């Protein structure tokens, strides 16, 4: 098996289960705008894609109204949501092992950079990452995962894309990796499933964070 020198992680649903805070804050945004409040289970489709895309695509919110929803979402998320999360069991140890083996670690997330750091600081894992890539609060700098992966590759200083692995829990991550020309790994402990990973041609599919070590080190 090939060995990787760079591993880029999605954040929500991959490094940490941030679902509770995200989903409850989404409910708050619908309630604040006097709209029917979707069930938490239905809102899970928000985790992965850019938030603007999700409001428009999944709930038919008019483009011009989306900023108001996002403002209300982030109102609750900043106050409470960032604390309603935890690092997946085994993930911290996995990243530490990768780093000990000389692998550089990045984040490529559709979440705004400031919120990524807020959550990482709360969880005490900020120092595990060599580069953090996310969006601006208004999502004006990125609309797709490919751009985020490419930016992360640049920040990490990776010259050979054959040595880069993108890890995520949704097909957006797999497609983003493909668009950037790097291998991908879908994780089954997040919010995606085996079927979507297979349909989008993930290079690898794993059940546990520890499985990423074997892939990255070429065992």
Characterise the protein shown here.
By secondary structure, this protein is α/β, with parallel strands linked by helices. The protein folds into 2 domains: 6-17 and 86-217, HAD superfamily/HAD-like (Rossmann fold, 3-Layer(aba) Sandwich), CATH 3.40.50.1000; 19-83, DNA polymerase, domain 1 (Orthogonal Bundle), CATH 1.10.150. It is built from 10 helices and 8 strands. The protein has helices at 19-32, 40-43, 51-59, 66-79, 91-100, 113-123, 145-156, 171-180, 194-199, 210-217, and strands spanning 6-9, 16-17, 86-87, 104-112, 131-135, 164-168, 183-187, 204-206. The strands form 2 sheets. The chain has a 6-stranded parallel beta sheet, with helices on both faces. Helix 6 (113-123) links the parallel strand 4 (104-112) and strand 5 (131-135). The longest helix is centred in the first third of the chain and has 14 residues, at 19-32.
What attributes does this structure have?
10 helices; two-stranded antiparallel sheet; 219 residues; six-stranded parallel β-sheet; Rossmann fold; alpha/beta; globular; 45% helix; 2 domains; DNA polymerase, domain 1
Structure described in brief:
The chain has 219 residues and is an alpha/beta fold. 45% of the residues lie in helices and 16% in strands.
């Amino acid at each position: 098996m090939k060995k990787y020198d760079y591993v880029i992680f999605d954040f929500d649903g991959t490094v940490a289960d941030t679902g509770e805070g995200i989903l409850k804050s989404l409910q708050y945004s619908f309630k604040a705008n006097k709209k029917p409040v979707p069930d938490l289970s239905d809102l899970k489709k928000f985790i992965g894609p850019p938030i603007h895309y999700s409001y428009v695509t999944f709930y038919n919110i008019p483009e011009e109204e989306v900023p108001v929803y996002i403002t209300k979402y982030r109102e609750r998320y900043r106050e409470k949501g960032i604390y309603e999360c935890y690092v997946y069991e085994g993930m911290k140890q996995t990243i530490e092992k990768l780093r000990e083996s000389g692998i550089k670690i990045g984040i490529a997330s559709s979440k705004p950079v400031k919120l990524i750091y807020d959550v990482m600081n709360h969880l005490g894992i900020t120092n595990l990452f060599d580069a953090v890539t996310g969006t601006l609060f208004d999502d004006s700098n990125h609309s797709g995962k490919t751009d985020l992966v490419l930016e992360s590759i640049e920040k990490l200083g990776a010259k050979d894309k054959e040595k880069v692995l993108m890890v995520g829990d949704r097909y957006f991550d797999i497609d983003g990796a493909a668009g950037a020309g790097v291998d991908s790994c879908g994780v089954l402990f997040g919010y995606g499933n085996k079927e979507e990973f297979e349909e989008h041609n993930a290079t690898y599919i794993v059940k546990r964070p520890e499985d990423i070590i074997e892939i990255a080190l070429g065992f």
